[in-house]
Design brief:
single chain; alpha/beta; OB fold (Dihydrolipoamide Acetyltransferase, E2P); 21% strand
Length: 209
């Protein structure tokens, strides 16, 4: 190799060593990167396309699900349950129930539901807010994983955003207080912490005609 060629090559290597390679992004990707993570945008992106269809296709009738849990909890968890890390399992469910009472003494409001055959006793509960606890909606569907997010904060924000969406579109508009005594049909999820206090977080509510 000629001396001039060698000098040119060395010069090129020297120049490149002092450069920082830039990442090429689209304008939209650049906007998202600057804005940072938005749990609301994430939920809006999956709600209709993935989240609701997953619940609709996989929700087990509540009577059947509770019977299977009572008969063999481990088998029911293996077949229907999902969880993150080592926390309690959550389940997708649907069913019909009669609204017995609405309890708003605490901000963690609950409607007491009587499952068929109706006997006037509360079998399960429906989360009605304004404070909505737990991560049942996020965890039950099985495809929202902690490793998909940068940190625990983002993961928690997704859970809150799902509950906010359910509250705005389902819980508040349904006005459960107006349906005491009625039979309703629900679609939602619950976290299995206590067999005596199954609390459904709804994503769909309707009065059975």
């Amino acid at each position: 190799m000629k001396r001039s060629s060698v000098q040119l090559l060395l010069l090129s290597l020297f120049v490149l060593s002092g450069c920082t390679l830039a990442t090429v992004r689209t304008l939209e990707e650049d906007r998202i990167a600057k804005e940072g993570f938005s749990a609301e945008n994430y939920v809006n992106g999956i709600w209709e396309s993935d989240f609701l269809p997953t619940l609709e296709e996989n929700a087990v009738e509540i009577g059947q699900l509770l019977s299977e849990i009572d008969a063999d909890e481990d088998a029911a968890i293996e077949q229907y349950g999902h969880r993150t890390s080592s926390g309690p399992y959550s389940f997708m469910t649907q069913g019909e129930a009669q609204v017995l009472t609405v309890d708003r003494e605490s901000r963690v409001g609950l409607a007491h539901l009587d499952l068929q055959p109706f006997d006037g006793e509360a079998d399960i509960y429906l989360a009605i807010g304004p404070v909505l606890r737990g991560n049942a909606l996020r965890d039950a569907v099985g495809f929202i994983a902690f490793n998909d997010f940068t940190n625990q904060v983002e993961f928690a924000q997704v859970s809150d955003a799902l509950k906010d969406r359910a509250d705005a579109e389902v819980i508040t508009p349904f006005a459960i207080d107006d349906h005491v005594g009625a039979t309703i049909r629900f679609l939602g999820a619950f976290t299995f912490d206590d067999r005596e206090e199954i609390v459904i977080m709804p994503v769909r509510l309707e009065v059975v005609e």
